[in-house]
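Side project, low priority. Logging it here so it doesn't get lost.
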Amino acid sequence: MNKRFFKLFGTNKPIIAMIHLDALPGSPLFDPDLGLDGIIKNAHNDLTALQTAGVDAIMFGNENDRPYEFEVDTASTATAAFVIGKLKNDINIPFGVNMLWDPMSSIALGAATGAHFVREIFTGSYASDMGHWNPNAGKAMRYRDRLGRADMLMLYNISAEFAHSLDGRKLSDQARSVAFSSIPDAILVSGKITGEAASMSDLRSVKEVLPNIPVLANTGVKQETLEEVLKISDGCIVGSSLKFNGDTWQPVDPKRANDFMHQVKILRASE
């Protein structure tokens, strides 16, 4: 098993919670009236709620920057770095970043902010809402290393949302191949869109062929499915189900976050 992964998170099955930043400058949904102060305030509120609930790590993402791009606007990445920098002194758990759907911008943001890990689609070939999707893991990892951040973990989402894989192989075969060819620190399995659960059969089949690599559920994990997910996987990334009314675009609901982590603690105590 990846020793760096478990050393970072300090648990066998970490819960990584999302902070979905408000739409950033450069994005059509950016709200000038909210401004940078409002983006920082909302992110800080989410951070406080998640850390109080006891999540193991957080991840900053730009899910609100729709329509999505493969090359993120420089202003968006710069603003994300500014926001994270403003919050940095209040972050007391490991944190990661993801600038959808741009591996190079995600790596750059992680390097600039001192992130512990980065998530992206680093491998594969897809037909997507954004067009043909053809990332380059080798280029991204070499960029990370050139920036002096070989210590920053790379979490590979191998089932891209908003897309259809052009790879004819089973997902488990793709996962086994990616693990060999592209040396991920962890493999993530997703549903078809943000907030939609990954197939349990997909999650199980990937974990069965990768017993020595962390495999996490990347989307759609809910309190009622948590036990089943953690029986199969090595942790999860959770966002929408911790929001008010389970709505991706709403702030984190402290009660939902607390209830979710209470269930995690019960499951951990029973192991």
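Brief comment: The first strand starts at residue 15 and ends at 20.
Revisit when time allows.
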